[in-house]
Amino acid sequence: MTTTQTSATLAGCAVAFAILFLNLRKWWTGGRALKDLIPTIQGFVTGALGTACAGGLAGWLAGCTRQAANTGGDKAISGTTGTGAGSAVASGSIGQLTAEGAVVVFLLFVVLFASYKAASKQDKGRLVGTLIAGFILCATAGVAGALRGLPDLANSLGLSIGNALGGAL
Are 59 and 109 in contact (CB under 8 A)? Predict the structure, then answer.
């Protein structure tokens, strides 16, 4: 399965920001407990690392999500304002995964799936919504640059796991 290489547009980014705003607003107006941010952070980080996937299901989903958000966002903005916002923003890459890092990302997707299955309806929405926002925003130069160390962290963690399993602690 190959990646759908779609850069984010201003309209797609507006969709991602709307998703993040709605998720963070619920937290801000609620008790503001840090534990309530876990689904939001988990979804966004997994989405961010999904943009580092060169292919496979995660890379394909990231590309298709951006394409759908770009199209839907442009229609929503055009329908609301009469002016489209489908112009592409500068694209960027969060980085590359090594084989060891790919294992960590795979395990994060497994954890996300298990969390989704066990979550309340509200937390399911947070997980999926912020996963989508991560897929979209981490393809932009600004957000990808800010999170550039995330794949390196996954790569290092995977290497440590591999070394531990190989007996080279």
Answer: no
Name the token pair of 93.
């890459």
pTM of the model: 0.93
Per-residue pLDDT reduced to its tens digit, 77-116: 999 999 999 999 999 999 999 999 999 999 999 999 999 9
Residues 6+ apart with CB under 8 A from 8: 16, 66, 69, 70, 88, 89, 91, 136, 137, 139, 140
Q: What is the domain range of residue 155?
A: 10-86+95-164
d(CA 139, CA 148): 11
CA atoms of 102 and 51, how far apart (whole Å): 12
pLDDT band for 141, please (50, 70, 90 cuts).
very high
Does some domain include residue 75? Answer: yes
Is 63 inside any structural domain?
A: yes
Look at the chain and count its residues.
169
